[in-house]
Design brief:
The longest helix has 30 residues. The chain has a single domain, classed as GHMP Kinase, N-terminal domain (Ribosomal Protein S5, domain 2). It has 251 residues and is of the alpha+beta class. The strands form 3 sheets. It has a 5-stranded mixed beta sheet with strand order 3-4-5-7-6. Strands 8, 9, 10, 11 and 12 form a 5-stranded antiparallel beta sheet that branches. Strands 1-2 form a two-stranded antiparallel sheet. The chain is built from 5 helices and 12 strands. Bound molecules: uridine-5'-diphosphate.
């Protein structure tokens, strides 16, 4: 740990170019995705990403609540992102705060650009994201979980939506920030994209970057998203692939 004024800050980048947890700048935290762990939901997914643990459940297409949100030409996509009171070191006040509302909104909007909502007029597709343990990047982990949960629910979409936060730590562009890097780094840039077209459907930024750094960060994020995309597809394959022996037994 180094010290800046009265505040103890960790050494974010070693002389060898390694980060607080030993990762290189272009390395993701370990990511495990399970599709379909919840039986009552129409679709679900559990994501363990570094120290983040996030559950997503999808219901629908179903009746719209509250009713006045109903749209005659398409489904409404509603998202509720919630961080459990026990998900962080300092107890988080339970319930909806401005941050959760903002994250819920940007996630719902990201899915509006990929879900074929017009196939289900006068219905609602409800996405619930529960963060059980948080260590930065939870909106991206939530998006990844929700995306796999939507596919698990059989909701037709253009594509899955991989997401990752890129940032700037100790003057360098780094992939997939963890808590210390988010807290003490210079910038945090969560993004989500449609892999086939490369179209960005979520992009937010806190902090400062030069245009050159921003361009480098976007490139790094795209590479990260491609590798996350493979894991998302893998989770769905694991859930829906029938072993030849099981298929023979069922026949
Ligand atoms: N965090 C916290 N308490 C809060 C909100 C956030 O401890 O009330 C932590 C949590 O670890 C979270 C991180 O700060 O993952 C970064 O939060 P941010 O708002 O940047 O969103 P995220 O990176 O999780 O998408």
């Amino acid at each position: 740990m180094g010290s800046v004024g009265a505040k103890e800050v960790p050494v974010l980048l070693s002389p060898e170019g390694l980060r607080v947890d030993g990762r290189r700048l272009d390395e993701l935290r370990p990511l495990r995705i399970q599709a379909g762990p919840l039986h009552q939901a129409d679709g679900s997914a559990f994501v363990e990403w570094g120290a983040n643990k996030v559950m997503a459940a999808v219901y629908g297409p179903r009746e719209v609540h509250p009713r006045h949100l109903q749209q005659n030409n398409k489904a409404v996509i509603q998202c509720k992102y919630n961080m459990a009171a026990f998900s962080v070191d300092e107890r988080k006040r339970p319930g909806l705060d401005r941050r959760s509302q903002e994250i819920s909104k940007v996630i719902a909007e990201a899915f509006e650009s990929v879900v074929f909502a017009e196939e289900f007029p006068r219905t609602s597709i409800d996405i619930y994201i529960e963060v059980l343990q948080a260590n930065a990047g939870t909106r991206c982990a939530g998006l990844v979980a929700a995306s796999v949960a939507l596919a698990d629910a059989g909701i037709p979409m253009v594509d899955l939506l991989p997401a990752v936060a890129v940032g700037k730590v100790a003057g360098e562009i780094a992939l997939d920030l963890k808590k210390e890097e988010d807290n003490f780094g210079e910038a945090d840039l969560p993004m989500a994209l449609v892999p086939q077209s490369g179209r960005l459907v979520l992009l937010q930024m806190e902090g400062h970057m030069t245009p050159e750094e921003l361009s480098k960060a976007l490139d790094l994020g795209v590479v990260g998203c491609k590798s996350i995309y493979e894991k998302m597809k893998g989770a769905l394959r694991d859930r829906y692939t029938v072993e030849p022996s099981a298929a023979a037994e069922a026949a």
